[in-house]
Design a protein that fits this description.
alpha/beta
Length: 363
């Protein structure tokens, strides 16, 4: 219903409605911590209120921290929707934040894993949830990719932004330790000699898919893409020999690297990671390929009271100001980086423009 109203409001025509509704997909929710409050049905009148609120804040979504946090939220359990499976980097970060927010705000923040469709099943759930702060999205740049590739018919700008909490630039390609290529240049040479033979594990239409497309465009190689699911599922596929290469977060692959099963080819960055200084960069290997890492943060359903977003922002900022969370994030192999909702939204705007340019060039 909300998409139909949004479509009419944007005067896209009745002919688009069926296509938008068919794109919602089936939601596969897997709760992995404790029973979470089910997303409530907004109902006819609440949906109208949400659309009115969203329209009233259009173009100013980046400013909830400017609102006075005059709200009694949260009044009950809050579901943190993670569009990734349990055990991966996104999930582990969300659980650290859930524990800290539970202690600080006095209500249970419960991680709920909603997998599938390149993360869009999870983002759909929050997009269509009641605008009361009972469900919050915790995710990263894949929101931008899904919008760009048409997996979703909404963008990050349709959500009410919360704070940014983590930058993970430690993302690159990984192979088995007995693979015939142990550096980026060796991988490039092998792929050029065997076009389309090397299998690359991705999640179609997601962040990792665009990452691989950018590598192909920069180097001229061609992979055989295999959709194997989330980051943790990529590790399982690589370990089992079902794929030859995977893009992933170092934090997710670290256990396999420590055991000697995987080799990290390096990070597509200008400088080495402060968290993993032993891992080389593409620049050091004379490979002309750079790609920004994950930018994690919170997003609320369209029409959510800015005071709710402001209250979450205040709680998260206190966690960072008081050094209550940085070590826990670092222990997961990530860098804690607080940004206000306005700064986070601006950052996504910049990355979205970069992705569009990359996507257009890859067509």
């Amino acid at each position: 219903m909300k998409k139909m109203k949004k479509t009419l409001a944007l005067i896209l025509g009745l002919a688009l409605v069926m296509g938008m509704l068919s794109g919602c997909g089936n939601k596969q929710a897997e709760e992995t911590k404790a029973p979470a409050a089910a997303a409530s049905d907004a109902g006819e009148s609440k949906t109208a209120d949400k659309e009115t609120a969203a329209a009233g804040t259009e173009g100013t979504a980046a400013g909830p921290e400017g609102a006075a946090a005059d709200t009694d939220w949260p009044t009950g359990s809050v579901s943190i929707i993670v569009p990734a499976s349990a055990g991966g980097g996104t999930d582990l970060l969300a659980r650290v934040l859930a524990d800290k927010l539970t202690a600080k705000l006095g209500q249970s923040f419960v991680v709920v894993n909603v997998t599938g469709a390149g993360g869009s099943n999870g983002t759909n759930q929050v997009y269509e949830s009641a605008a009361d702060g009972s469900s919050i999205l915790f995710y990263h740049n894949a929101i931008l990719v899904n919008s760009l590739t048409g997996v979703t018919d909404y963008s990050y700008a349709d959500f009410v932004p919360g704070p940014h909490v983590v930058t993970d630039a430690a993302t690159g390609f990984y192979v088995k330790s007995d693979a015939p290529y142990q550096t980026y240049q060796e991988l490039i040479d092998y792929c050029l000699a065997h076009p389309g033979e090397v299998t690359m594990g991705v999640e179609s239409g997601s962040f990792t898919w665009l990452m691989v497309k950018s590598f192909e465009a920069a180097t001229g190689v061609e992979f055989k893409m295999v959709d194997v699911g989330s980051n943790s599922e990529k590790c399982t596929a690589l370990l089992g020999g079902h794929i030859d290469v995977m893009p992933n977060q170092y934090s997710t692959a670290k256990g396999y690297i420590d055991s000697g099963d995987f080799t990290a080819l390096g990070f597509p960055t200008e400088e080495r990671s402060a968290v993993y200084p032993d891992v080389p960069t593409t620049k050091e290997q004379n490979v002309d390929w750079l790609y920004n890492g994950y930018e994690f943060g919170f997003w609320f359903a369209p029409g959510t009271d800015p005071a709710i977003a402001a209250k979450l922002d205040g709680a998260v900022k206190e966690l960072f100001d008081n050094n209550e969370i940085q070590d826990d994030i670092l222990n997961l192999g990530n860098e804690g980086t607080y940004l206000s909702p306005a700064e986070y939204s601006e950052l996504f705007g910049d990355i979205s423009a970069q992705y569009k340019e990359l996507f257009d060039a890859a067509q």
